Amino acid sequence: MPDGSRWCICPESVNSTPPKSLYSRPEVSAVIHPLIYGTLAILGHLFPIFLKFKGGKGISCFAGVITCYFWPLAVVGLITFVLVAIITKYISVASTLGTLSLIIAYFIMQKNDMYLFIFLILTFILIIIKHIPNYKRLIHNEENKIKLFDKKS
User: Structure pTM?
Assistant: First the structure.
């Protein structure tokens, strides 16, 4: 991973938050559910037209959407993501398990929001589909590990 790429995560998460101002307006949110905006933003990050539909930054966009919609889930996902990334050193595993943790937390928190549940399930399926090449590299022990806290010589 190039040195500057880790700093892309924060702006990518933040750029998915502007629709919050749209769906906080009653005349807009009465017509279109806010998670539809979030889903479209995530799809745009997973399958960007300008990059020939080869995605990236979908997880960070997903984090921004969840943070705006129901922040306690975002906290659970962030903690899970960071712990798994530190333990395994694989972002694809951390992304997948972080997303799965949101589905589990949804039930533990007894959140009764069918739109959120559908959004979490669909996003989890998309994350799995987009990470299939990573899983194949993991099986063959060819996936690159992230370097956290490495001392430069």
Answer: 0.73
